[in-house]
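task queued by scheduler; priority normal; single chain, no ligands, no partner chains; default sampling; output format set to structure tokens
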Amino acid sequence: NASGGMVGSYVGDDGTYTPYLRAADGRYVSFSLPTKETYEFFYVHGQTDTKISVARGKVVGEVPRTYVGSFLGGLHELKVPGSVSTEGYNINQDGSVVGHYDSPDGRRHGFIAKLGTEEVSTAFSNAYTVKLSKGLNMLSVPLAPSTPMNAKNLVALTGATTVITLDAAKQHFIAWTPGAPDDGFPVEGGKGYIVNVPETRNFAFVGAPWTNTPMIRGDRGVTDEAAAAAPAITPMIRAGNANKAFIPLIYRGVAQDAWAFVVSGHLKGKPTFDGYTITVRNLRTNNTITTPVQGDYFAAATADLTRRSVVKLGDIVEIRVIGPDGNFESQTLRFEVTPENIANAVLSVRLDGIGKPNQNLLLQNYPNPFNPETWIPYQLSEDTPVSISIYDTTGRLVRTLSLGFQSAGFYNSRSRAAYWDGRNALGERVASGIYFYQLTTPAFQQTRRLVILK
């Protein structure tokens, strides 16, 4: 520490570990082990300037344990409530201990434990073990953690592939996946969350009773059923028995469907995607979700809180990228739902080349038939001069729309597509009937048909 003191431990001739302090003046002072049992090892890892030390030891036949304290006051065990074992390796000058702990399901978690008053420590020392079944679970958080929890924290604690909640104000689901650029939405008491875990999970929530919501209590405090209860959010009820439990379709050990699902991914091709949105449509059910892009990331979530299937193995999901002006900025992309997607409740995609078509294309005008005006969408794979010519059925040129030099991109919204007011080169309205429109560049030409109906 700052005064020149050094801490450690040594092993005597009889194999016994003894912790010690070497003072700045060279004196060695030893202190007692926390218990009189035989230790396989005992290491003192550090000491603060205020002479608070952290140590780690293992009694023969037991799990490793962590101890915090001083030479005068003695060392006392530090344990994350609900953990199988807790091992601290470092202590910071503010007295916070850094290490890891093992949860009952065998996973290892990092932690930072801040030393506090006995009153605060007691308040946040409640621990309640929760068991989540493999797959999708509804979950509410039974205890308030010492620091605010968010979606990223909940995924780390549960080992989930995703977490979903309902935005009650907007009445749509929002999701967080590990690919997100931020920590996600806050996790609060009295609210419900859907988590998907790849294996059965057995872990503990640690904290104090919530003060912003009534708790469900049993004979021994907050029950596992309270923690894993259905969310306190408005179900989107469909016809049928709302209380019927979801029984996943299983064929040869592979789940065939899911009652909650997330399509997430990253966009590439532009410096920024401010104001962009993503639409996701299941071609089988025609269910469509629209979600904003954050940075270059998006997550579109859907769920049925009556636990009826929203996606099945083999479903085709269609994704479109929409710019701030409503212009489609990508080809229509399609992805098939795989067994891995069902197991994770997540379809993760990467959308490359946003705003950059891979081919020139003239698209169908809209509306069609029309009267008196229409818009003609197209896409360009390279920067080029563009014109669109209108012909009648005899091949006579009716009008040429000179669009000038255009950058590569998609031109399909009303603000970007070519516009024709239904008039000829003299400004006269043309007669009803069939006409042909032709897109021309120095390297490309394509023709389609349109109809004026008066």
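post-processing summary
- Residues 6-115 form one domain.
- Residues 119 and 125 are 10 Å apart (CA to CA).
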